[in-house]
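Annotated sample (chain length 237).
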Amino acid sequence: MGAGGGTMIEGLRSMALPISPRDPVAFTPFSYDGKDNPPVYLVSPATRRQRIAFRRALTAAGARYPSDLALMAALREGIAALLPAAELGPLLALIDGAEAITKAGEILDPAARANLEEIERAVAESDPRYRALLADRSAWLEIAPLTAASMFLVGRAGEAPLPRRGGIVPDEVLEALPEADIDAIGFKALALMSPTKDEEKNSASPASPPPSPRPSQATSLPSSQETAGTSSESITP
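Output written by the structure step:
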């Protein structure tokens, strides 16, 4: 739901790389653009078994990503509970239009975005079900990249691989990195779980990935450039 919802993961996977679980991908967050000696992280694409383990870890953590359809349905129900039926027409039309634009992968114009945010705020203040859905999405967007970073970050190029415990990078090791880097690494790992068709043809282990999230503007998401970074060809650490 919201402007550009489908662009985050699409932006992260925009470079057509040969994706193989055997070849970690070199990656630098865009926040380091123009800076001297930026870190080059190595992120390992997930195997099918690792994708299953990742989804299991999210489920075990209680992470749930409500769909745009679920959020829009709750928004309609919430606004219908607030206003008389005679006043609902223009607001429901706005919600319908926003949903259609989002599905088309387009961006709402600023005026429509502002109007929709007013509806979202009003419903969020009065409807606990809608608030719960927003909270679920917000939590997923925190938990998923952190979990992905712990599972698929190999280390830095030119350095020894990070220590692992139970197959993941321990919290005390991961938290030594800047928080913004951890998020960017995690989103990069998520993008590598959703290769393009060309990448799937080049992959040594193609498999159907989980659907890419389409986040709402209401969750104050970073843009694809802020979370993605730059990638080089897959290299071996």
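Annotation: The CA atoms of residues 64 and 136 lie 6 Å apart.
Annotation: The beta strands are 25-28, 41-43, 153-156, 230-234.
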